[in-house]
Design goal:
The structure holds 3 protein chains of 3 kinds. Chain A is an all-alpha fold. Chain A has 14 helices and 2 strands. In chain A, strands 1-2 form a two-stranded antiparallel ribbon. The longest helix of chain B has 27 residues. Classes of the chains: A mainly alpha, B mainly alpha, C alpha/beta.
Chain lengths: ~350, ~350, ~240
């Protein structure tokens, strides 16, 4: 039996997925030993955030067949909501430093950004995607893609028009000494940001794998007619999926407000990175997107460390293009892609 | 599409129009564009600058539509490719002392080469994935331009000599209108030829095209090369008109601008984007300059128009034109809108 | 009467395929629709289940007018549809696919009972319950599709071309399993190309030609009808 598992493991290592995960881990470890463990910390924090955004993107693409270009704008909405909720909270806690809100205030802000992200997703569906779906589904992928392009420009400029173009940021969520792990000091905010991302990803994976509604979402993504004839209400699932996907992106924006202050185009970088992830990992499953997120995060961190800031679009995108030449379906790719574009 | 009257029966004027791929209405429009700089209020320099920008976007949208409308792949790195052409043209002038006119052509050639590469590496991808690949390519080119400071001066911007040694915008205006016309003509000729048929075939169904003997590899790469070469020449024009190049011109938002014009104009028509760019971009510029205390408002309107068109009229202006304006009862009007062909 | 279809018009876009089709099925009956390619057999099925909105006419199921309802609503009323393409969830396991078939049943216990019932009908599925549906053979997929259709404990089962693309041995298997269902008291509406076989097992039949009901009657009588023999059986 163990031999069987051993050979299975070996063949997994030889597959593109296994190979890239192993290479990622090795590179991460080597780089951390060479330049210091903060590389690993950065990778893990960025990767966690990216996993949230990329999972949302995968959902939109896999279930609703929408290549979402406006996903970064929900990141922006999340960070904006967190800013406006957290500012009064932090004013209050500055005056009452013993209050229990010191601990829970940031969580309230993040919850607010999640909810507002979900609501804005529903509004987007009702006002934009729904009307298009009702009118025609011919050429759906391209039309909906252009719609999201318009939505992205709209949201960015509405932000600028209503809230101004300045940086709306905070000093930090949780004050106090950085946490030290093996002589490495990590700010509390970073630790919390990663923990929140990890908890959400695990919960989300559990939801998609074991619950009735999660299974219905997967069913819709695999065969929409099949989903209809077993009695799944497609409209409900569509609404739920959009709100989930947007909420995932928004909570990433909310929990990273201390790193990325809110401004009109703050969502572009996470958007680019999330698309790198989705294209690189292929339209597989949630786990593929999560693994891909950490790979891209490591690529970015290593590029910034060894080549310099500003190269983090050039090197990862070049590498991804290189991989795509040899494996067009992505490293964790599945057959879902064939159904997506005819 | 195909003419029912053979060319022998047409009078010489119609024959020329047909060769120029214009209807009488199109001819009048073109004539209007040529006299526009002499009609007040358009004869003011700042308005001419806007009009030149309109012409530039119009020409770009024609080149963009050759890929998006015919082989159904959105080249999302189009602005970056154009910027690449612009930079190579500018660098050739600055470092090698080439004439801007020759450098502009060279810029087109380098951009065409980039198109060749994009076409090759995206061969195995389809639809939205090919679009993403060209997008990543564009991002990479833009990143390189920002970082290669010794060559491009990065964000500081590159000063370039202008095409005409004059402060007036009029010669530039005539140049861009001429360029627009010739780009339109070239694309239209390609589309009318056997190659255009092949483009449409692989755009609609690549597998079916392959089984009927069309080599999708050749035609796809060809299409990318031509379309990107057009972008490169226009990038060269941009460089030698504004006199300063920054990496911002390669930004995705510039591609979005071109894409919006091309799609509002009507995909697969070539002329739709060119026609719609003038009123649309011009109005946007007016909004931007008059309501400068509300930054971003013009782009909000812009995005709203794109969204509304995509939902309620995905065929764009050219579809509207074909279904509503093209078929008047009056015979003379019908000739005016359709020509003999 | 369990299902009553009256003067049904249906089609795709501007293309009308069905013209005033009427048919009815009593409880416990095993009824078939046969006809040449493109006659509108699948269209009839799809408009009964609500995948296509009818252009005219009414569909009454169990005394309730279900015309124009969505597929998911109609499924909840107790009709199951096994489509020609099967529409399985290819990246889910056999067991997950079956549980999805019982989506409209919220009670876990009933779901489990249904699962046991389907496994007893198709022991092959029980053996492969952890396998992904996309990796199974054509015959197994057909069984899975029928099994999934049975999971919701339907009052009426619509089966579209179950023998399509199957080897003769597997066709026999599929017909056997439908017989078992029939003996369990399930009402079945079957659409088939395999006319001889179908008329041999069903109670009643409708002949659909050019979007209209041409003939109807007992299957035995239809099999002897000279027109049917000439057109479908080639004798």
């Amino acid at each position: 039996m163990s031999n069987n598992y051993g050979s299975k493991f070996l063949s997994w290592i030889k597959s593109a997925a296994g190979l890239s995960i192993v290479v990622t881990i090795v590179v991460a470890v080597v780089a951390s030993i060479a330049s210091g463990p903060y590389l690993l910390v950065n990778t893990v924090v960025t990767g966690g955030m990216l996993a949230l955004v990329a999972t949302g993107l995968t959902l939109m693409l896999g279930v609703l067949n929408i290549p979402m270009f406006a996903h970064g704008e929900f990141f922006m909405i999340g960070s904006l909501a967190a800013f406006y909720v957290f500012t009064p909270i932090s004013n209050y806690t500055n005056e009452n430093p013993d209050s229990i809100i010191v601990v829970f205030g940031p969580l309230i802000a993040m919850a607010a950004s999640t909810i507002i992200g979900a609501i804005s997703g529903i509004i987007a569906e009702k006002l934009v995607f729904g009307p298009l779906r009702r009118r025609s589904t011919d050429d759906w992928v391209m039309n909906s893609f252009l719609l999201t392009v318009g939505l992205s420009v709209l949201l960015i400029n509405l932000h600028q028009l209503v809230f101004g173009a300045d940086f709306k940021g905070i000093v930090g969520y949780w004050s106090g000494m950085p946490i030290s792990i093996y002589d490495v000091f990590i700010s509390r905010d970073r630790v919390m940001a990663f923990m929140i991302a990890a908890v959400i990803v695990v919960l989300f994976w559990f939801f998609m794998t074991y619950t009735r509604t999660g299974m219905a979402i997967r069913a819709v993504s695999q065969d929409i007619t099949g989903a209809q004839i077993v009695g799944i209400d497609i409209e409900k699932i569509v609404l739920l999926t959009i709100s989930l996907a947007c909420a995932l992106s928004a909570v990433a924006g909310g929990s990273l407000l201390f790193m990325y202050p809110s401004y009109p185009t703050v969502g572009l970088e996470p958007l680019y990175m999330a698309w790198f992830v989705v294209i690189l990992s292929g339209l597989g499953n949630v786990l593929g997107a999560v693994a891909g997120a950490f790979i891209v995060a490591l690529l970015k961190v290593i590029t910034v460390e060894y080549i310099g800031a500003g190269w983090d679009f050039v090197i990862p995108s070049a590498l991804i293009m290189f991989i795509l030449i040899f494996k067009p379906s992505g490293i964790f790719g599945s057959d879902v892609r064939g159904a997506l574009d005819k | 599409m195909s003419s029912t009257i053979t060319s022998r029966q047409m009078n010489p004027f119609d024959k020329i129009l047909d060769k120029l791929c214009l209807t009488p209405a199109g001819f009048c429009g073109l004539a209007l564009l040529f006299v526009l700089p002499f009609i007040p209020p358009f004869n003011q320099e700042y308005m001419l600058r806007w009009l030149i920008y309109c012409g530039l976007i119009a020409a770009m949208s024609v080149g963009f539509d050759l890929t998006a409308g015919y082989i159904s792949i959105v080249n999302f790195g189009y602005a970056a490719v154009s910027g690449f052409g612009g930079y190579s043209s500018a660098l050739l002038v600055i470092n090698m002392g080439l004439s801007p006119w020759i450098a502009m052509i060279a810029g087109g050639m380098t951009a065409g080469f980039i198109g060749l590469i994009i076409g090759m590496i995206s061969l195995r991808l389809r639809g939205i994935f090919a679009a993403c690949l060209s997008w990543f390519f564009g991002l990479a080119i833009m990143g390189l331009t920002i970082k290669l400071v010794w060559l491009t001066r990065g964000q500081l911007g590159l000063r370039t000599p202008r095409l005409f040694e004059t402060d007036s915008n009029v010669p530039f205006y005539f140049l861009i209108i001429t360029l627009l016309f010739f780009i339109y003509l070239a694309c239209k000729w390609i589309v009318r030829s056997k190659m255009g048929l092949a483009f449409q075939a692989i755009g609609q169904n690549m597998d079916a095209a392959r089984t009927s003997g069309i080599n999708p590899v050749y035609y796809r790469v060809m299409n990318f090369t031509i379309s990107c070469a057009i972008a490169g020449v226009l990038g060269g024009f941009y460089a030698h008109f504004y006199g300063i190049l920054t990496p911002d011109m390669m930004h995705t938002s510039k591609t979005v601008e071109i894409l919006a014009v091309a799609y509002i104009g009507g995909r697969g028509s070539l002329w739709g984007g060119a026609v719609i760019a003038f009123p649309f971009i011009f109005l946007m510029e007016i909004v931007r300059s008059t309501l400068s205390n509300l930054p971003g408002l013009n782009l909000v309107i812009y995005a709203l128009v794109l969204i509304l068109v995509m939902i309620y009229y995905p065929g764009g202006f050219s579809y509207f034109y074909d279904t509503n304006i093209r078929k008047p009862k009056n015979k003379a009007l019908r000739y005016f809108f359709n020509g003999r062909a | 009467m369990l299902l009553e279809v009256k003067n049904l018009d249906a089609g795709y876009g501007y293309l009308q395929i069905l013209r005033s089709v009427s048919l009815n099925i009593d409880k416990g009956e095993y009824v078939c629709i046969i006809g040449p390619n493109g006659a509108g057999k699948s269209t009839t099925m799809k408009s009964i289940i609500g995948l296509i909105a009818p252009m005219g006419g009414t569909v009454v199921f169990n005394g309730e007018d279900i015309t124009g309802m969505s597929a998911s609503q109609i499924t909840t009323k107790g009709i199951s549809f096994v489509s020609e393409e099967m529409n399985l969830f290819v990246n889910m396991s056999v067991q997950e696919n079956l549980y999805m078939g019982a989506y409209t049943i919220k009670d876990k216990k009933i779901q489990k009972n249904r699962l046991d019932f389907v496994f007893s009908l198709f022991p092959r599925l029980a053996e492969r319950k952890a396998q992904l549906a996309g990796t199974m053979s054509g015959g197994e997929r057909k069984m899975l599709a029928i099994g999934r259709g049975m999971m919701s404990d339907p009052k009426l089962l619509l089966v579209d071309e179950p023998s399509f693309g199957l080897a003769p041995q597997l066709v026999a298997n599929v017909f056997e399993s439908l017989d078992v269902l029939k003996s369990q008291g399930v009402t079945i509406l079957l659409v088939e190309q395999n006319v001889t076989k179908t008329l041999a097992v069903t109670d009643r039949g409708y002949i659909l030609e050019n979007g209209k009901i041409g003939l109807k009657g007992k299957s035995r009588d239809l099999a002897d009808n000279p027109h049917v023999r000439k057109v479908f059986l080639g004798v």
